[in-house]
Design brief:
- This protein is mainly α.
- It is 57% helix and 6% strand.
- It contains 9 helices and 4 strands.
- The strands form 2 sheets. A two-stranded antiparallel sheet has the order 1-2. A two-stranded antiparallel ribbon has the order 3-4.
- Helix 1 packs across helix 4 (62-72) and helix 2 (25-35) packs antiparallel against helix 3 (46-55).
- The longest helix is centred in the N-terminal third of the chain and has 17 residues, at 4-20.
- The relative contact order is 0.12.
Length: 166
């Protein structure tokens, strides 16, 4: 049985690996889970779980993968629920974090419709103020492209619409 601190440390490692891959890494993880959910249950066995993490650029020792998997297989039915995994990976929202998101949302959803589309979100970005641009590591165009890729899901075509709801 794994201790709470072991799991926290492993999640820190997973987050770190995803963040090193850039803004789209969490979306890549989400897409990998979706593509591999052949029976639409959002439940995954150990082999699928490992393959999905590796496709997303997350590499852990086998024993650590087993610890994470067992932690989420609470029913011991050899299945991990993706939604529970993602919620744990993203962590709890603090009051301060929620207030910031609400403030940003109110500035984006000026018509108070309760949703925004991808174009509205991209138009509100300021890639020239990104730390990597300010440090001279990346261009504003490169950051904008990363943001666009992070927002893209599966599928192609000019009619694809991403809508984000509050």
């Amino acid at each position: 049985m794994s201790s709470h601190s072991d799991i926290v440390e492993l999640f820190t490692d997973i987050r770190s690996q995803l963040l090193q891959r850039g803004l789209g890494s969490f979306r890549t993880l989400e897409v990998a889970f979706g593509v591999n959910d052949h029976d639409n249950t959002r439940l995954f066995d150990f082999a699928e779980f490992v393959a999905i993490l590796e496709k997303s650029g997350v590499f852990l020792k086998r024993q650590n993968l087993t610890k994470i998997y067992r932690f989420f297989d609470k029913d011991q039915n050899e299945r991990v629920d993706y939604a529970h995994f993602l919620a744990a990976l993203l962590g709890e929202w603090t009051l301060a974090r929620r207030q910031v998101v609400d403030q940003i949302w109110s500035q984006l959803d000026v018509e108070q419709r309760g949703f925004i589309n991808k174009a509205q979100l991209i138009s509100a970005t300021m890639p020239h103020r990104h730390p990597s641009v300010l440090a001279g590591i990346k261009s504003a165009n490169a950051i904008l492209k990363e943001i666009e890729l992070a927002l893209e899901g599966e599928g192609e075509g000019e009619y694809k619409e991403i809508i984000i709801y509050n």
